[in-house]
Amino acid sequence: MRVLFIDDEEAPERHTISNLLRAEGLDAQFLHPEEVIDDDVHGAELIVVDYFLTHWGERDDIASASRSPRDGLAVIASLRSRLLPGLSGRTVGQRPPRAVAFALWSANLAEATLELPQYTLPSVFARENNLEWVFRRTEVSTQDGARQIASLARAVRAMESPAFDPDWIYRLLDIGQDDWSALARDDVLDCHPPLFDLGPRTGGLAMIRWMLHRVLPYPCFLLDERHLRARLRMDDLSNAPDLFRELAPFEYGGVLSDFGGRRWWRSGVESWLFQKTGGNSGDSIAVAEIGRALGGKADANLLRPVVVLSPTMEPEEALVEVEVAVRVRPDDWPPFADDAFARIEDVRAHAELARIIEPADRYLVGIGSDA
Fold it and tell me: Is the pLDDT of residue 118 over 80?
């Protein structure tokens, strides 16, 4: 597998990145945009392009606007077109070309994205600009960044030969035949996967985008550790190896499972809680007792904890009772995801939160329903 990096300057971190990706089983190639040819594009699983291409003299000498892409987004659009056959090469029933993922990387993402909130920046900017992902340049040369790049490249490779039958997405998500698997399939369908038309027509790329843009950043059929703690009524799981061993059968292991942290199947966790509490999984005290018995900490004794967003739209580590929070509607939050919350005190203090409050919750902070 190969990752192609396109940059107008020689990347000083190229050797570090190459070594990190080699440890993940990937080859890294670095080229100036003027050097890229079709074979380079067709031979990569993932192509990462710098956003601000300021050192490209050959482009600057061209008067034609159509032939002189000003930034990485324009270069990516041009390279995507190189992957598609011309009109005479397109036939009815033709299999789509091999998937290649595209991402941006930049040390100036705030400027590139016109100051999008930092936490939501990668998924939202990628979604609105026909990209698979956006990487902060400083992160790419770290082990976590290399792991994300490798995860995305492997996801693309997994799309090379799927049988696009009604179960293809479930196989990629690695849904087994457990007692809770049928519920997991229903939960996946609730999130509108590109199952029948978009997925096959894009060689599987639509599925990768759906996961990266609409599923992994939000609480839906998979729970990250924050939302797992909220469900288990736990403040801290950092010293709970017994609990994680119990939850191991429900840990997500499908495509992109190592992209941005561990996650667990909601339906699996719910099934486990139902069994462990003797059918009393709606009782917060019974649930918390299970967590404590397996090493979790619940010093705050929260009955209905929720994850709250900070004024910068970043989920906070500390859970709060739902009574001191209100629902908010951040831009592009999927309708199938769990509600987003913010602290009432933060909503009162920050206009950027007050303007996105759920209308039905406005009375909780003294805002009229007609505001």
Answer: no
